[in-house]
Protein 1
Amino acid sequence: MTVTLMQGNAACVEGALRAGCRFFGGYPITPSSEIAELLSRRLPVVGGRFIQMEDEIASLAAVIGASVGGLKAMTATSGPGFSLMQENLGYAAAAEIPCVIVDVQRGGPSTGLPTAPSQGDVMQARWGTHGDHPIIALCPTSVAETYTLTIEAFNLSEDYRTPVILLMDEVIGHMREAFDPDRYGDIEVVDRMTTDVPPEWYFPYDETRAVPPLVSFGEGFRYHITGLLHDQAGFPTYRQDEIEPWWQRVFAKINDNLDRIFMYDEDGIEDARTIVIAYGSTARSAVHAVQLARRRRYKVGLITLKTIWPFHEALIEELAAGAHRVIVPEMNLGQLALEIERVLGRAKVRRVNRVDGELIAPRQILEAIEVA
Amino acid sequence: MGERFEIRLAGSGGQGLILAGLILAEAAVLYDGKNACQTQSYGPEARGGASKAEVVIDTDEIDYPKVIAADALLTMSQEACDKYYHDLKRDGLFIVDSVHVRRVPTSRAHRVPITQIAEDTTGRRITANIVGLGILAGLSGIVSREALERAVAARAPRGTQEINLQALAAGFEAAEKLQAER
């Protein structure tokens, strides 16, 4: 038996190493610091590199560089650092560089509430960087799921050549739970696609491929990377016949694969009058509240979102079609609720919010179920 | 929700209460084969400021990871006592360190000079967290003594196993005395 009591941040580290992460560039910030601390010890042992950069702007720049150099690379931060990373997050999305950004959310805005939990970065994860861009964001609800979703974050980043945000929160990051890595012996790890074409024929942004393979710098393939909109070879372009296919491709690679990317659990939603839609640590409160409500004979179902971006509109519409009321608990003033309201209509959705630095209590959600 | 049991350990930063919570959770998971979930909250200070660890122990899976209404509360500062007393179940176990807590809101509380016991037993006040764990486990029985001894020995910094096990034994002894008195 190899069960240990593991912290969420440590599980993120174990997941990253299992996924093959070999580079971390970052700047420690609570409540994510344990990720940097542990990787600073673990990465050199497996032949990886750890760099503490001067700030979070440089951190993500280093991660992008490492990824273009061929390594699976990540950084970890919290709200204030995530704000600084937005510029390079956009660059990674535009240049289609696989990388994983962990944001262990704490109370904001600004330096906010250090070491107190929050889910205030939901919209920042989607729209923090300027310009329309595809993005993936995953939210674990437990220590074990932090492990599996960290691996999944790397897998998705490689599969779709995109930055992936692992949107944790302080409760999940600092919580300790029983964890047995042996249970995940056959978990899938996706490695970077290479190419057979000779260097002179290689296009890093080949418009005939949904996700063109990214060959590492230094292997003899000459190409250009830029945040400017670019042609197939990566050079800046203003030509509409080159810009348009690029837009179509980078959104299609995500939108055509929603069924794989959008992960969720459902429980008892078939004949539910009320459905709770939750994510992150708040989902733990929701599970408890739903159990209490069922004992009081309320017909209530639960949808736990593991992926919050991209948002699978059609699926949520279908899952919630039979419900009279949908309750969305969040440790913010209503961010994912905006998306759910947009899809299901404001009349159907009730928000349950808490922003004082404490996890939403099951009682708060139960009360909302009772008046639904 | 089989036998959900909620414990809150609260005091000041530097008293080692988060480590105590970690040890308690490890005793439950690694040596008693139960489920446990440990969470914490603390300020930015290295020492001082409010500090709190919460441990939920259950034979079933644990959903909500925090304390809803504590089955057991150990407070090692006046502030923690004032703040968390109201979240304790009516029949919950209430232990206060009388060295740090002068005003106790109920006669039901077990007032124990935990920090003094630590100093008398090991010569080091810093082992008060382990004395407190011994009292809490002794009175509640939520983890076995053997499990707690193994967890303390595994977590104690190198060279301090012996004094920490002494502190734990002193805690169990204090618990026995309290039970005999009642």
Note: The domain at 5-181 of chain B is CATH 3.40.920.10 (Pyruvate-ferredoxin Oxidoreductase; domain 3).
Protein 2
Amino acid sequence: MLFNEIKKILSGKTVGIAGCGGLGSNAAVALARVGVGTLIIADFDRVDETNLNRQYYFHDQMGQFKASALKNNIEKINPSILVHSHIITLDEQNVSKLFAGCDVIVEAFDLAEMKEMLIETVQSEMPNIPLVSGVGMSGWGQNESIKTIRYDNLFIVGDGEIEASKETPPLAPRVGVVSNMMANVVLELLLGEMANETKPQQ
Amino acid sequence: MKLNLNNNEEVLDTSSDILSINEIRAIKKFSFNHLVVKINNVLIKKVRFDEPLVRDGDKVDIIHLISGG
């Protein structure tokens, strides 16, 4: 598929991103670069210096709300993307309202209990919308442990094992790998599977 | 009881013919607090984890969630 054809399909798509931290900010930027037409992003938090080791923000954005700062950064990269930015704490009540009408939803929280709340809410109230979630991306190395597991229309990306801790902080490389794998699953859901018909020229 | 548990065929050591999610967690010694459960691809909310819902041959996904992001 030509990039112009890809862009044309993606321009009509809407992706919801729950959380604008390490996973959400990086996945959102990847999806904006390839031209997903509408992004609905939500986060209650502000940019802190400790976020800059992995999240898609700049030193001069410290103190700004992440949802606003991310919208600004996306508009600098690709001004044709429509970004609906919500400074909000997501819960069982507002998730369905905010993300109804999305083609795909991305779960990009940091806390396990928030991941649980979002997956439970989306999969019970909007079971037809595919959901891509990041579970296990802390520490460094161990590329081979990162994978995507599919449970019907729930896609879990990550190592599934290494919890964020003082000794295993989430860091840019592994968080970047997982967030971009999540964006890659989103693309596959939006575009369909890539045809492997082009063989290398001899 | 035969189950497809987390995409693996498993036989659980139990004499009952119907189990709750919490009984399966105890049998399997799953100790994580935060999880998402699907039975035959349908999400089961946490409030139903003590209900007898799982029968022989079911597909059960117990997905552990850990912090980090």
Note: Residues 23 and 179 of chain A are 5 Å apart (CA to CA).
